[in-house]
């Protein structure tokens, strides 16, 4: 049986009247008894080309969250991409991010490709 004890928000758009920024696909990794690391996708729309993984951290067991930054600097990539990554803590204590990164050469196309019944290429 699952019991909900309380609800918290990992990310909330501080200016929804100015910017359309949605946060979705959160994943949380426990770093210590009190420290949690959340990775989530933030973007203008569900398949928008500006979608990327952001980092948020809690130091009080998840009661409050602080938005840090995007997980990595996309400007160093050779092509435009969007991504969705989740944090995993290995037995050694190393934190890795696993997921998907899609090529966004045409910013007007979504991730799904009707003509192939598939998805955009990626790494």
Describe the protein.
With 123 residues, this protein is mainly beta. The chain has one domain. Helices cover 0% and strands 41% of the residues. The chain is built from no helices and 8 strands. The protein has strands at 22-30, 36-43, 52-58, 66-70, 81-89, 95-103, 112-113, 118-119. It has a 4-stranded antiparallel β-sheet with strand order 1-2-3-4, with no helix packed on it. Strands 5-6 form a two-stranded antiparallel ribbon. It is globular.
Can you list the strand order of the major beta sheet?
A: 1-2-3-4
List the uncertain runs: none
Mean pLDDT: 91
Roughly what fraction of the amino acids lie in strands? 35-45%
Radius of gyration, in Å, reads 16 Å
Number of helices: 0
Number of domains: 1
C-alpha termini separation = 38 Å
The secondary-structure class comes to mainly beta
- What global shape is seen? globular
Order of helices and strands: EEEEEEEE
What kind of sheet is the major sheet?
A: 4 strands, antiparallel
Would you count the extended β strands for me? Answer: 8
